[in-house]
Design brief:
This protein is mostly helical. It folds into two domains: 204 residues, no CATH class; 41 residues. Helix content is 49%, strand content 2%. The chain has ten helices and two strands. The chain has a two-stranded antiparallel sheet with strand order 1-2. The longest helix is centred in the middle third of the chain and has 22 residues.
Length: 277
């Protein structure tokens, strides 16, 4: 059973003339001038460690998000990967404000950070859930889960920092299961040492045991790259060698948008809006 305009059977025919022209313009929108060597897609891949295929898929979803911003009667919130594409596009000021907002959509979609607090979080969580429903209604298929993560992941897996890869190695934390096994092995070793130790040696063993216990309980919050769903980072990272570091690649924080300037997710603002916590 189709929604308002199902992508498969009535997506085009059920659109109003305005919506049809709007979507066509957004879908065909290009980010780069002819001859650009460091493209928008290459920079986006570089900043997030994504492969080329995943990056192109995120860009396609970013366009769908922008379209939903324009037609939403209340507000919508982007996933984190889509948010990253949006953040980067905002730095291309002429492309975003002149070419996309004014030239293609005929309206300005503003971006403001969240004010913080439980009310804001609840509001944007509602918007994020609403976007999934609006997406299905308009495009006839659920959002791809490796780009549009579930609500719990979207609003909890957010502990990101900008890191200079020339100075630091990035080593993925082991899973909780591996940490648990390692802890058990350490405890067995500690128990054997305790049997053979006394006095000062026992104090040292006890300290080692406490450290091992603390490590085993350390929150595996950063386990898994939820921001980027690509499995082969080499394609995306190869973009960096084309001049990304020399051109000033940078990461950005969270985001939000509206046609009237609402915060990190957006409330009802006529033309629609979106954002993230």
């Amino acid at each position: 059973m189709c929604g308002r305009f199902c992508f498969v059977c009535t997506f085009k025919t059920k659109m109003t003339t305005f919506e049809n022209q709007l979507w066509k313009g957004i879908e065909e929108f290009t980010f780069d001038d002819p001859g650009t060597q460091l493209t928008f897609a290459a920079r986006l891949a570089c900043e997030n460690g994504w492969n080329a295929n995943y990056t192109q898929r995120v860009i396609a979803e970013y366009k769908r998000f922008i379209y939903l911003c324009c037609i939403s009667p209340t507000g919508v919130t982007p996933s984190d990967p889509v948010d990253q594409a949006w953040h980067l596009h905002l730095t291309y000021t002429k492309s975003y404000w002149n070419n996309l907002c004014r030239g293609t959509m005929g309206q300005e979609i503003h971006h403001n950070p969240t004010k913080g607090g439980s009310e804001e979080r609840q509001k944007f969580s509602t918007y994020y859930k609403g976007l999934h429903e609006l997406y299905l209604e308009n495009f006839g298929t659920p959002p791809p889960p490796d780009i549009w993560h579930d609500s719990i992941t979207r609003f909890s897996d957010i502990d990101f920092q900008r890191v200079n890869l020339q100075r630091y190695w990035l080593i993925k934390k082991p899973s909780a299961k591996i940490r648990s096994v390692a802890f058990e092995l350490i405890m067995i070793a500690v128990a054997m040492l305790c049997i053979q130790s006394s006095g000062k040696d026992f104090i040292i063993v006890f300290i080692v045991m406490m450290i091992a216990s603390a490590l085993s309980k350390f929150n595996d919050k950063g386990n898994g790259n939820k921001r980027g769903g690509g499995t082969n980072g080499s394609e995306g990272m190869s973009s960096c060698t084309s001049g990304c570091s020399d051109s000033g690649c940078s990461s950005h924080g969270d985001s939000g948008c509206s046609s009237s300037g609402c915060s990190s997710g957006c409330s009802g603002c006529g033309g629609g809006c979106g954002g993230g916590d």
